[in-house]
Every structure is written in structure tokens, then in C-alpha cells.
Amino acid sequence: MSRIPFSNVAERRELPPALAISTVIFSLRDDPRTGRKSLWMPLVRRTREPFRNQWALPGGPLGPRDSLIDAAAANLRDTTGLIPRYLEQLYAFGHPDRSPTRRVVSIVYWALVREDDAHDTDTEATSVLRDDPHVAWFRADDLAARQDLAFDHQEIIEYALWRLRNKVEYGSIAYRLLGERFTLAQVREVYEAVLDKELDPANFRRALRSATDIAETDEFLSGGKHRPPRLYRYTGSPTHRLESENIA
Amino acid sequence: MSRIPFSNVAERRELPPALAISTVIFSLRDDPRTGRKSLWMPLVRRTREPFRNQWALPGGPLGPRDSLIDAAAANLRDTTGLIPRYLEQLYAFGHPDRSPTRRVVSIVYWALVREDDAHDTDTEATSVLRDDPHVAWFRADDLAARQDLAFDHQEIIEYALWRLRNKVEYGSIAYRLLGERFTLAQVREVYEAVLDKELDPANFRRALRSATDIAETDEFLSGGKHRPPRLYRYTGSPTHRLESENIA
DNA sequence: TTAGTTCTAGTCATAGTGACTCTAACAAGG
DNA sequence: CCTTGTTAGAGTCACTATGACTAGAACTAA
């Protein structure tokens, strides 16, 4: 690893572009504002220039022996402690001026994390330095409107949100944000959070029951102050287009 | 540009990954086999190792001042002479072993070219060396099954074909593969070629007329041995998600 | 003038969907 | 024990989208 000194930014820009991997992480959380569930994501605070102390997507360099998705998963674990249930390539961002120093091309992945997994990590991360946390969670909708994020990360988040909302296979998305067993109402909550609109429970139920990748179990979820709903499980295959992508 | 000598492949692999841009180009052509139109794409013959003399996707390095899409367009013009009507990022391929020499991460774009534009270039390219052409056109379906392409380009083509067939906005795709004015039957030919199945003319007509991004003109296409069909034009906006992407 | 072709309009049955109603099955509180 | 509140889950109705099909319109070629 030889570091070559350059006198100014212009010269650094003529270097071959550096390659970085970043990840947009989605999880589901209770939203104190609306009372419903909504989409949240963790950002990390930058410790170095440029954009020191500003919030950024977790990311890092590409290891010499890692595939792109492995690099994304490894980095995600190192920076946030999270292990995603889903990981898919989002887009490669490479505008020449997206980094003020040397040119960086970022291959961005997007990940889905279960609510339980995410909450564990959250407390763990904030317990280190509660006043100045290294990782913090934000409402996805808020971030898409903020202007103080590092690099072009606000634009990336905006695009990730768009992709999530225009994803065709919502079935698998809901499953990966929930646990092994779930009620149809929970799936509906996922849809409502992602699409940001209320759905008719009866019609939604009818649609889901005609979906092939969800099967009913013999278990029911008791404890609510109402009729116990039946639990369902995901039966669709975890594989996707492009083998070895995504995560079980 | 200093070239550092390395004794073996293993050491080269520890270098930072090189970045390359490649493009999968689709165009529409008469298919002598089926008699209908089908999807074709041009490949270039490699002049250097590795995979010397084998067919590969057109591609090249990323210029220091070009955006990713500009690099794709520039390279596409230089290697094949083609100017695409549509250009969108497909995927970033970065498996550690996809190149036998040093590690290469390829950001791949996919392009749509009009039949007229493509045919000009074809004759131009083959006229240079008719026996051993630099560029040649292949049926997309055939390529997706071939095993003798350079690098992982067969896999990339397979994925590009899958993406094209699962594209939601077919309207704009048909428009970009055709000219400014087109008949509804021509649009149907595009759909039939892409989806690889026959469509009912009357039903297809009904569906297209309810689409908002196609408007009828006062012109008709005469010359056929049948009732002259009306000509239509595309009125949808060329802009897409991610500004400055795609091409007018 | 006739035959052959495609364009174009229309019908009919069916599948899917949004809005809505109603009953079932629990918990909580008197 | 019984009422009330809540959500689960089944079902109805109207409307829309779509596949299969029929038939007339408008051209060319012979």
C-alpha cells in the first residue's frame, strides 16, 4: 500500500477511480409520530474528512478477495453490527464530482433487517457513547428530504426508497422484515409502511391468500385483546435472479 | 501511468480492483429462422489476451472525467459506431475470479438501438474485414446459451435479457427500438420479439390505445398489400428515474 | 372484379379489484 | 355471566381489465 503524495485535488482526480461499497439498510419500527410502523434506516457518523461528523451510509473499501455482495455484508456487520435478511445490489454511483477529494465510484447495496435484530444492535451501538453515537436510526422519509448528509447519500437514499416502493415482489420483502411466523396483519403493516398508505384488511387478506409463497400454519397468536389471528410462514424460495446474491 | 511488474497472478489479484464499463446492446432485426423480428446484439472480437479472438461485450476503461453513463456511451460509439436511443445501468459484476488476470469490476449498461441505425453500422464494420470482422451481430437468444464468450459475458447477457423481458415500461422500449413514427403492428412486433410469443392484434391494439404515452398522427403508411395502417408517435417523457441517465 | 391481406371496431365471458357488510372469536370490565 | 370493544376472517356487489372471437373496412395484386 504505497501512498503517493499529490499536491492538489485536480491531480488526484486524474487517478484511476477508487471503488467503494455502501449499503442502504431498511428496517421496520414503530413510528411515534404516526402511531403506525414505518421505515427506518441506520447511518454512521463519519470520523474523517471529508464530511467529518456528518451522517453517511455505512460503507467501506472492497476487499481484494471478496465478491461485491460479501464486501457489502462484511462491511455492514463491521460498521453497524447488523446481519441482513436480504441484500441486493441497488446501483453504482460514479459521478465525477460526488466526492470532493479523489474520485470514488460507489457500488451501493440495499438491505432488509428484521425489527428484532435491529433493535438489539441499536441499544448495543448507542450504549457505547450515548451522547455522540456512532450509529443512529432515522426515518427513511425524513432522510430523503435532508440536505446535510455526506457525499450524494441523500440522493442514494431517495433512489433506494423509490426502488423499494416499486419492487414487484413485495411478498419476499415483507417476509424478510418480519420473523419466521407472522400474521397477515403484520404483512399488511409492512405494505402500509412501504407504500405509505392504508390498505383494506379484507381485500389485502384475499390477495395474500391467493399468493403462492405464503402458507398457513396451525398456530395462532394469542395475547391480543381480540380474536387470535392465524400465523403464516413464507414458503417462497430465497433464491433470486443472479445466484449467490441475496441472503437466506 | 506507471506499470508495476508482478511476477504472478496471485500478486496481481491483491491490487485494488480495476474498473471497467461494458454495454449490452439490443436491436431488432428480421430473423431468417422464424420469419419474424427478434432481438439481436453486437459483440466485438477481442484483440488481446485474455480471451483473445473470442467474442465479448463492447467495453473499456472509465475515463477520469466521464460519468459512468458517458463512459458507456463513448465506448459504445468507439467500438461499434452505434449511438443508442436508450442507455440504462444494468448491474455491477465483481466476482473475484471473473477475469483470469487482475481483478476487474465491470459496471454494465444496456442499450437500445434502432433498426435503421444498427444496419448502417453493421455494413460499415464488416466492410473493413469481411472475413474476420471486428464486430458481428448475434441473436440474443443464441448468445444466452453459448459457452465460448469472453469472461462472464454470457451470464451478463442472460441477465440483460431477463431484465429486458421483465421491464415494466414496455411502451418506451418499443418506441426506442423503432423510429419517430410507427404503426401499432410494429409496436406489436417489438413486444412479440421481446416476450417471444404471439399477441392478438385486436387486443393489443385496444391495450395500446388506452396507453397515454402514444398518440395517433394523421399519417398512414401506404405501400403494403393491404389497408394502410395509421402512424403513431411517442409522447411520453424521455426522462426516467435518476436524472441525466438514459438518452433522449 | 375478385381474392388475399391486414386494419380496426366490436362482443362476450371471465378474472381481478376496490368498497363494503357481516359474523366469529377473543379480552376486559362490570 | 354478560356486555362491550376489538380485530379476524368470510362474503357480496359493482366495476375494470383481459383473452378469445367475429366481422366489416380498406388497401394491393391478379
Q: Which CATH-level-2 architecture of the largest domain in chain A?
A: Alpha-Beta Complex
CATH class group of the largest domain in chain A:
Alpha Beta
Number of helices of chain A: 8
- The name of the CATH superfamily of the largest domain in chain A reads Nucleoside Triphosphate Pyrophosphohydrolase
- Classify the helix fraction of chain A into a percent range: 25-40%
Low-confidence stretches of chain A: 1-7, 123-129
| Structural class computed from helices and strand pairing of chain A | alpha+beta
- Total DSSP E strands of chain A: 10
- The CATH topology of the largest domain in chain A is Nucleoside Triphosphate Pyrophosphohydrolase
Most residues in contact, chain pair and counts: A-B, 27 and 27 residues
Radius of gyration of chain A: 20 Å
Organism (chains A, B): Paeniglutamicibacter antarcticus
InterPro entries (chains A, B): NUDIX_hydrolase-like_dom_sf, NUDIX_hydrolase_dom, WH-like_DNA-bd_sf, WH_DNA-bd_sf, WHD_NrtR
Region (Disordered) (chains A, B): 219-248
Protein name (chains A, B): NUDIX domain-containing protein
Give a quick set of tags describing it.
DNA-binding, NUDIX domain-containing protein (chains A, B), Nucleoside Triphosphate Pyrophosphohydrolase, elongated, disordered N terminus, three-stranded antiparallel beta sheet, Arc Repressor Mutant, subunit A, WHD_NrtR (chains A, B), 248 residues, NUDIX_hydrolase-like_dom_sf (chains A, B), homodimer, alpha+beta, WH-like_DNA-bd_sf (chains A, B)
